[in-house]
Amino acid sequence: MKKTIGILLLFAVLSAGCGEIEKAGKEETGREVSLTFMMPQSHAKDFLLELIAEYEEETPGVKIEIRRIPDDQWIDLVHSKAAVGEMPDLIRLDKWVLEAVGTRHFVEFDSATSWYDRVLPQQLDNKLIDGKLYGLPISATSGIGLIYNEEIFENLKLRVPTTMEELRQVCGILRREGIIPLYASDKEAWTIQPAFNCMVMQYTDADTWEKLKSNRLKWSEVEEFQVILNHMKELREEGYTNEDYMEATYNSAVDAVAKGKAAMYVMGQFFIQDVLQKNPECSLMMAPFPYDGRDVLSIVSGAGLFAVCRESEYVEEASDFLEWFSRAEHMNRFNAGWNHPPVFKEQDLQMKSWQQYIYDEYILTGKTVVQIDETLNGINLNGLWNNLKEMLSGRMDALEVMESWDKDFGEQMQYKGEKGWQPANPPV
Hints:
Number of helices: 18
Radius of gyration: 26 Å
Shape: globular
Order of helices and strands: HEHEHEHHEEHHEHHHHEHEEEHHHEHHH
Structural class: alpha/beta
Distance between the termini: 87 Å
Strand content: 5-15%
Low-confidence stretches: 1-29
Number of strands: 11
Largest sheet: 6 strands, mixed
C-alpha cells in the first residue's frame, strides 16, 4: 500500500514538473509573427523604416517585412494581388486606389478604435468611403507644382514664371548659365505625370469633367489636352531639360537639384524634403506650374492610409501596429518626413517656412485644384502615364496618346457600370 502511494505521489510530482516545463517553454518561445507590409518603392522612406525598426524593438516576437513595389507597377500589382487573394498583412494605399480595388479586401475601423476620434475632422472626412474608414489616416493635404531653387533665381534676378512663354524665357537664361533649367526624369512614368496633371487640372472645369465621365465628351476631342502634351514634348526637344531625360530617374533628380546642377523640377512637396536630406543648405520653394497665368496650386488632398487586409492571418497584430503608429510622437516624425501638416489632434508639428507659405497662400485660401486621380476616383491611370512616356520617347504623338486613353478609360467606365456607358458584358 505504501509502495503504491509512493508511486502515485512520484507520478503526481513528475506530472506537475512536466507541466511547469511545458508552460515555461511556451513563455520563452512565444508566438513569432511576421507581418508583410507592401508599399510603392518611393514610399519606403528612411524615416518610415526607422519607425518600423523601433516598433520591432519594442514588440518582441513581431517582425515587419517591407515589400517595395516599383511605382510604375504599383496599381496594377495591387489589383492583381487582390484578384488572386494574395494581399499582404499591411498596405499603404490612397483612398481612390483602395476604393478601386474594393473595400471588401480591407478591415473597417470605427469610433470603437482607440485612435479614430483623435483624427482631425478634415483629415478623417477626406478618407471616408460611403461614411466608412478602411485604414489609419497618415497624410494631409500637400502641394504639387514647380519646385525651384530660390538662390539660383535670386542670383540671376529671375522671376518665377506664370505662363509657358515665361517658363521658356527663364529656361533660356538658365541654359546659357550652364544650369539644367527643368529636370525631367522620364524613365519612370510616375514622375512624368505631375506636369500634365497640373496643367490639365488648371485648364479644365467641373463641366468638362462631367462630360468626360458621362461619355458626352472624348479626351481626344479636348484640343487643349493635346496642346499640353506638345508643350511637355517641346520643352525637351528645345533643350530646356537634361539631355538624358529618358534615362533619368526620381533619385537622379534629387541629386541634380541638391547639387545645384538643376534649377527646377515638377513634383510633390515631398521632393523638397528628399533634397534637403542630401543638402540641408539648398533653398527651395514651390509655385503653381506655370500655365497661362492661372495662380492655382495642384494638391493631393491627403487621402493616404495604412490599411489592414481582411485576408491577413494577423489582423490583430497588424491593427496593434496601427495603434502604435498613431501616437503623436510617431506621426510627428512621419508627417515631418513628408513635409505634411498634422493628421491627429494632439500633434504639435511645426511647419517649415516654405510649407507654411504654401499652406497659407493656397491651401487655406482655396486656390487649389485636386489631382486627376481624385477627380477620376477609382480609375487606373497607368495606361495614360505609360503612353506619356511613349510620346516623350518619340513612339506616339499627342493625338495617339489621347485616342488610346479614350479606349482604356471607356473600358474601365463600362466595367464600373457608370452612367452613360454601355456595360462591358450586357445581360443576354
